[in-house]
Amino acid sequence: KVLSKCRSNLYEKFPQSKAKFVNSEIGDFVDTLDNNSADVMLLLEVMYMVKEPEKIYSLLAKKLRSGGRLFLSVRSEIYYSQYLVKNDAFESLGKLKKTHGDILSNGVNLNWHRYEELETFFSLYGLKIIDKFGIGICSGVESDPGVDLCLPGKLSREDLKSLHEIERYLGGKYPFSGRYVLLCLEQSDSI
C-alpha cells in the first residue's frame, strides 16, 4: 500500500517523472539495470540489513554513470555500541570487531561501517565520498539508544526547532555518531 501511495503521489505531482518504485531484493533489482545507466541512486534505510553490503556497493558502482551520484544511509559502529550498552548486552560488544553479523543475537544479520573502511572500499570502484552527515545524534525513535536523550515527537514546536539546529550542527561535525550516516558519493569512473 505504501509503495502504491508513493507512486500515485509522485506521478500526480510530477506526471513527466521517470522515477521508478520497485519492491524487490536490492541485489535482484540492481542486476536488472544496465551498466553506466543511472544518474542518481537513492538507498535510505536499506543497506544496514543487507547480508553482503560490499557486493551490493560494487553492483551499484557499475550502474552509475561517470559523475553519477549515490545517496546512501549506513549505520555506524557507534549506534550499535550504544544499543548494546543500553540493553546490557555487554557480552556482544566483541562482535563489533567485525562489520556485520547477528549483533543483537536475534537471528537478524545487520551491518555497520567505519568511515575509513568505506572510503577505501568505495575508492576501489571509482566512488568518492563527497559529503557525509549524521542523523539522530541527539535524538532517537522508539527502541533506539538515543530515545533516552530525546524523543522528537514529544517536543514542543520551539524545542523541536532547537533540536534540529543542534542536530544539523553535530551531524556535519560528527557524522558517524548518529543513528544513521547519510553519504553522498560520486562515480568518477565508468566501470
Structure, explained:
This protein is α+β, with helices and mostly antiparallel strands and 191 residues long. Helix content is 35%, strand content 20%. The protein has six helices and six strands; from the N terminus they run H-H-E-H-E-H-E-E-H-E-H-E. A four-stranded mixed β-sheet has the order 1-2-6-5. The longest helix has 17 residues. The protein starts with a helix and ends with a strand. The model has no long low-confidence stretch (mean pLDDT 86).
Features of the shown structure:
191 residues; 4-stranded mixed beta sheet; two-stranded antiparallel sheet; alpha+beta
Question: Outline of this structure?
Answer:
This protein has 191 residues and is α+β, with helices and mostly antiparallel strands. It has helices at 2-13, 26-32, 53-63, 77-86, 115-123, 157-173; strands at residues 38-43, 64-74, 100-101, 110-111, 127-135, 180-187.
Topology:
Blueprint: H1 2-13, H2 26-32, E1 38-43, H3 53-63, E2 64-74, H4 77-86, E3 100-101, E4 110-111, H5 115-123, E5 127-135, H6 157-173, E6 180-187
Parallel strand pairs: 1-2
Antiparallel strand pairs: 2-6, 3-4, 5-6
Helix pairs in contact: 2-3
Structural class by sheet pairing and helices = alpha+beta
Q: Strands of the largest sheet, in order across it?
A: 1-2-6-5
- Rg from Cα: 18 Å
Number of strands: 6
The percent range for strand residues is: 15-25%
Mean of the pLDDT scores?
Answer: 86
Helix content: 25-40%
Report the total helices.
Answer: 6
